[in-house]
């Protein structure tokens, strides 16, 4: 495993990173001028990004709570979790099942270093922090096997991360590789950018991503549902993340404020 602490010495803070941009948008403190500048460029064309980022986070919490309490899962592989924030996967899962085990994976050494310093597992459970890239699922699975038992069901979490693979065929291949390693009864939790509800502004935000070196890919609802081929979607199916078993008081955001589909499915 690459040592993220040593990698921090080579961290190029002049290049924006999605995790740090996301941290900035959510009001965090772990970002650099390049991250803030790129985030502000995107917010200028898609000001509802903050709303969608919060809704994605809340969707994560609801999905993990559902899988832990209702499906009985006690293992999670969370790829691309971003910088530590309240409501992390292991916090939600271990509140219900203290023995739950979570492997976090990110390609930003700063994310893993901060997570190791801040995120503390319940004594009965375990957490692992893996510095790896989504495009290298073999390494992810090999490293995660140190804390997860792949002979038992696992919850695979890919929240707002698969769209960073600009080649749709590559994204599908990576997902298939990860799913193939999971035991029957495992679950996939996925959210993904879409242009279905606000095509003009989302396209502009994607252009910003191209300009700053962080290209992203958007899908239609039909394309999003293809990721779940062979899996059993949980109710309410593939919907906007703000609509998945929403339990938050107050008015529901407009679809154009969200632009992320989300779903949970059983393998």
Structural class based on helices, strands and sheet pairing:
alpha/beta
The percent range for helix content is 40-55%
Uncertain segments are 1-9
CATH fold-level label: Rossmann fold
* Number of E strands: 8
| CATH architectural type | 3-Layer(aba) Sandwich
Describe this structure as you would to a colleague:
The chain has 267 residues and is an alpha/beta fold. It has one domain: Vaccinia Virus protein VP39 (Rossmann fold, 3-Layer(aba) Sandwich). 40% of the residues lie in helices and 15% in strands. The protein contains 11 helices and 8 strands. The chain has helices at residues 4-7, 18-25, 33-45, 49-69, 89-96, 109-118, 137-144, 168-180, 199-211, 221-226, 255-258, and strands at residues 75-79, 101-106, 126-131, 155-159, 187-193, 232-233, 239-240, 260-266. Strands 1, 2, 3, 4, 5, 6, 7 and 8 form an 8-stranded mixed β-sheet that branches. Strand 4, helix 8 and strand 5 form a beta-alpha-beta unit. Helix 2 packs across helix 3 (33-45), helix 3 (33-45) packs antiparallel against helix 9 and helix 4 runs parallel beside helix 5 (89-96). The longest helix has 21 residues, at 49-69. The chain starts with a helix and ends with a strand. Mean pLDDT is 91; it is low at 1-9.
Features:
single chain; 267 residues; alpha/beta; Rossmann fold; 8 strands; 40% helix; disordered N terminus
């Amino acid at each position: 495993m690459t040592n993220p602490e040593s990698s921090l010495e080579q961290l190029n803070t002049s290049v924006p990173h999605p995790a740090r941009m996301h941290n900035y948008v959510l009001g965090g403190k772990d970002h650099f001028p390049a991250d803030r500048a790129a985030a502000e460029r995107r917010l200028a064309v898609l000001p509802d990004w903050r709303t969608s980022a919060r809704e994605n986070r809340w969707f994560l919490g609801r999905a993990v709570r559902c899988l832990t309490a209702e499906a009985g899962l006690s293992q999670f592989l969370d790829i691309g979790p971003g910088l530590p924030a309240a409501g992390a996967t292991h916090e939600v899962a271990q509140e219900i099942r203290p023995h739950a085990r979570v492997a976090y994976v990110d390609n930003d050494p700063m994310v893993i270093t901060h997570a190791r310093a801040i995120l503390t597992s319940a004594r009965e459970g375990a957490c692992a922090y893996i510095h790896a890239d989504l495009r290298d699922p073999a390494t992810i699975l090999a490293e995660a096997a140190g804390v997860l038992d792949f002979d038992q069901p696992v919850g695979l979490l890919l929240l707002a991360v698969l769209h960073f693979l600009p080649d749709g065929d590559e994204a599908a291949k990576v997902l298939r590789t990860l799913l193939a390693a999971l035991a029957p009864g495992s679950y996939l939790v996925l959210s993904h950018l879409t242009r279905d509800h606000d095509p003009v502004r989302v396209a502009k935000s994607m252009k910003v991503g191209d300009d700053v070196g962080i290209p992203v890919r958007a899908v239609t609802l039909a394309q999003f549902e293809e990721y779940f081929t062979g899996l059993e979607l949980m109710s309410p199916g593939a919907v906007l993340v703000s609509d998945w078993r929403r339990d938050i008081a107050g008015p529901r955001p407009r679809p154009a404020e969200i632009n992320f589909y989300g779903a949970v499915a059983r393998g």
